[in-house]
Amino acid sequence: MKIVIDAMGGDLAPLEPLRGAAEAAAELGVGMIVTGDEAQLRACAQEHGISLDGITLVDAPKVIPIEAEPTSLLKQYADCSMAVGMDLVARGEADAIVSAGSTGALLVGATFLVKRIKGVKRPAIGTMIPAQGGRFYLLCDAGANHDCRPEMLTQFAVMGSAYYEKIIGVEQPRVGLINIGTEDTKGTELQVAALPLLRAMPGIHFVGNVEARELPLGGCDVAVCDGFTGNVVLKLTEGMGKFLGGAVRDVLFSNLRTKLGALLIAKEFSSFRKTLDYKETGGAPILGVARPVIKAHGSSDARAFKNAIRQAKSCVERDICGAIAEGVARQKAAAQENA
Amino acid sequence: MKIVIDAMGGDLAPLEPLRGAAEAAAELGVGMIVTGDEAQLRACAQEHGISLDGITLVDAPKVIPIEAEPTSLLKQYADCSMAVGMDLVARGEADAIVSAGSTGALLVGATFLVKRIKGVKRPAIGTMIPAQGGRFYLLCDAGANHDCRPEMLTQFAVMGSAYYEKIIGVEQPRVGLINIGTEDTKGTELQVAALPLLRAMPGIHFVGNVEARELPLGGCDVAVCDGFTGNVVLKLTEGMGKFLGGAVRDVLFSNLRTKLGALLIAKEFSSFRKTLDYKETGGAPILGVARPVIKAHGSSDARAFKNAIRQAKSCVERDICGAIAEGVARQKAAAQENA
Questions:
Q1: Is A8 in contact with A80 (CB distance < 8 Å)?
Q2: Nearest to B175, CA basis, from B185, B164, B183, B166
Q3: Whole-prediction pTM value?
Q4: pLDDT computed for residue B86 by the predictor
Q5: ipTM for the whole complex
Q6: What is the reported pLDDT for B82?
Q7: In A, residues 244-283, which contact B (CB 8 Å cutoff)?
Q8: What is the CB neighbour count within 10 angstroms for residue B36?
């Protein structure tokens, strides 16, 4: 198996992606292809004593800036490290790609270079978010498609369900529609129209409307929504974690007595914090494209990149793309039957 | 000043609303009018030794169920405790009303009985949400209007800004538009269209798009959005608080050592928890109607009701409705000038 990593993407490029690739090559038994400025990568490896065993460097010195118009990936930046990596995947020279570069550009590359699975209307971003009891829920769409039609939400449900089942190993995960109440009449036109479509969808275990309050409390395994709502949920979750985490830290550092208390709970507290750490959980898959494309967090370090590569490997091994293709085909057949 | 409390609304009716009214009458120097089943209220007062000094009971034994169609408040339930209370306010026999009953019904009553301020398109729900550093931000709309036009968002900004300025005492509070990025092109059609309107609005201090991540971190004082997004933000904030609060509790009760640690931080931890407690912050004002209408949390106890009454009193004293009327008139004048 060969996995591409875009070494020029992310805040800590190229050192941390390269380091992550080297660790993955050594520990995970995958062949790594690293795209980026080859001279810079070789110098960086030498300076930091990073072994290039098991790593193929592909020279692509150009970088697509985070603020560039995403579609510029196809023309002006067609030779950048991200686009070159995408091409390798599209041509079958690699099985999957990980990048911490611009989400918009990655979506464009996934859609137009790696290409959509047959029948998929719009690829979506899936993101695993920690919830009560050490569980996770998959938020889908976490920000790719702001304006959605009801049929797009049913497809997010099918794709998210396939991903959750294959990667987390839960059969028939509980799919919920993020809404502002549990009754059938709740929500905007989008949710009201999507609800019966989701109920009628074969092959998924749909549990109905789920209020945002229930998401961190384990109300569903796959939370379906438009990309605007999903991005609000994702970002607010991050912000609340930062706010409450900071407040607890302030409590612990209030005075000598609380600092002593902090010492006594340090071990358990740090193991809880670890369950919230995105660096442990890998990246966000772009669902609905022909091969696994993983968006790593912009501030990923080597460990986060290695975990994203591990996740890409699982996606290839468990044939996520095949499972999504099956689900989408089943959805289409059901729709034709009902038509 | 006379404030109505709907004694039949909320999970703990009628005991806790009655108790809250009695405490408010004794401590806040306001005349309380309590609507509800008079016989039941008198029996309840006697049983629990609650003084009815300073309280006028108005007999309205019927209750509008939480699941009833909101507009049924105007016909089928026109004689229920909530509607009777609204009528008292509409007729000028009371200055404000507090109810923990159905939000939908309260909105209908506020709009059609108490009536909108001239020029207000749609009343909105404002909710104060705790943020970093002991601050609060006002979320508006927190759930009244799911499908919004851009002009509605500008009005929410004007109303929310007036409320924040008067109640929190911050001049020119920072108004932000909840969005999925800070650039002008971000968001759905609604946000893209609302952004220039908000920028052009006189009399408010608009700071631009604000990502959901920044809300709990103090990114703005007044966070403007459609009611669907607002309700997701409100509910997810509650859920995250419950999830992380529970997780911290689990850490503290892990074993004997952590329990000792918990003892050492108990005082500071409980004072932080208090800042997150909705019972301290009162209820959610319905903004844009002719007199203050406060929605108390469904599970409010006497203390929460008393705080909601205190808030209603502040709204009357500081003439929130007048300030909103002024802001809306200024907005209209500016729109006509630009037309």
A1: yes
A2: B164
A3: 0.94
A4: 97
A5: 0.93
A6: 97
A7: 244-248, 250-252, 254-255, 257-258, 260-265, 268-269, 272
A8: 29
